[in-house]
Amino acid sequence: MNLPKRSYCVVAFAAFSMMTACQSTPSPSPVQYKNELASPTISYGVRPFYLLDDMDEGRLKQELKSCQGQAPKRTEFSIAHRGAPLQFAEHTAESYMAANRQGAGVQECDVAFTKDHQLVCRHSDADLHTTTNILQTPLASKCTQQFTPAEFDATGKLIKEASAKCLTSDITLAEFKTLKGKQDAANPKAKTVEEYVNATPAFRTDLYAQNATLMSLDEALLLYKKMGVKVTPELKRPTIIPHQGYTYDDYRADLIKALKKAGHSPNDSIVQSFNLDDLIYWVEHDPDYAKTAVFLMEEDNSAKDGKNFDPENPATWKHDLTRLKQQGIQNLAPATWMLVTNKNGELQMSEFAKQAKDIGFGLITWTVERSYPLSSGGGWYYTGIQDITNNDGDMYRLIDVLHQDVGVKGIFSDWPASVTYYANCRGI
Questions:
Q1: What number of other Cβ atoms are within 10 A of residue 349's Cβ?
Q2: Residue limits of the GP-PDE domain (predicted)?
Q3: How far, in Å, CA of 283 to CA of 328, rounded?
C-alpha cells in the first residue's frame, strides 16, 4: 500500500504498551500515555441515545432522556464484558481500550493457560478456532482437532457440521501472542477454513477487526492498573487438567499470584468462577480475595438435578442460599434472567433475587448488549420475559429493575457505554 506523502505514525501494541514511531510528530511520554489510560476522554457514542429513542413512552424514558446533556464519567456499575465485544474482538487490547473510553470502571479477563502454563485472556481454553485466526496460520497444525469441512448429502442437506478444536494449551505463550483476535463465530456449513472463520453475526461487526491484539493475563492486569480500574478475572474450567504436571490447584493459585504481582489488592479485584469449588478454595487459601470473589450462576450450575431453573420456584434451585453464605460466599452473579420475572405483564424482581438480597449477598449480573436485536424477544438472556420484550429500548427497562429493585452493584455489558449512561443518569 502506498502511503500518502505526509507525516504518518505507525502505532502498535507491544506488551500492551503503546510504542509510536513517527516521522515528524514527537512520541508521547510514558507518563502522558498513562494519563490517557487513567483519564480517558469518555464518550457515550450514539448507541445509548438510540436505545432511549426506542423505549416505550413513559416515566422511565423521560427520566433517562433528561440526562442527555450530562458529561460522561467512569463508573464501577459498568462492567466491561471481555472489553467491548459488540464491535471489537473480545479479550483484545483494542477491546479493553474501547471499554475504557466508554466509562467501564471494571474490566474482565477470562483466564485460560497455555502449553507452558502461562495465563492468558480467553473466554475458553478451547475457543482459539472461533476467536482467533489460528486456523489460517501454521499453528493450525498444532490444534487438538484439525479443521474438518462440512458434509452434505446428494440433495444438499447438511449431514455433518464443519468443526475444529484449538486449545490454548496446544501452543506456548509466545505462539499465542502471534495470533490475532476476531469476533467469536464459526460457520457450521463451511467447506473451507475461510468460510469457517468468516461468520460474524449480522448484529456484530468486523469493522475493527484489522487490529486485535491478544493478551496474557499479566499484560491485561498491568493495562488495567494503568487505567486505574478494578479487575474481574474469571477462572475458566480447563479442558485438560492436570496438564503435564500442572494441577488445578496450581492454576487457581496462579490467578491470585498474578493479581498480587500486578498490584491489584483484594479491594480492587473481583475473582469469579462458575465452579463453586473455586470459591471454596479461595475462601480457604486466599480469604482476603474471597471476600470480593463472585460465584457466577446459570442454569447449568444452579438447577436441581432433573429440573429446569425457575427463578420463582425454590424447588428447582440446586443451592440453598443460606448454606452458600455459611460457606463463605459473599457475592453472587446470576444471569440477568434469573433475577427478574414477568408478573402479569410487568417486569419485576424474581423470588430468587428477593431471597438472595434478603440473605445479604452482594449481587452483580451478566450480560446486556449480548443478545441479537430485542424485537424478537432477546433470546436466552431474556428467558422468562421474552413475551414483554419487543424493542431494543426494553434493555433500559431491564437495567432499571436490576438497579432499583434488585439492587445489583454492577452489570456486565458487551457495550459498556449503554450501562455507563444509565449509571451516570442515576448518579451511581
A1: 19
A2: 76-423
A3: 6
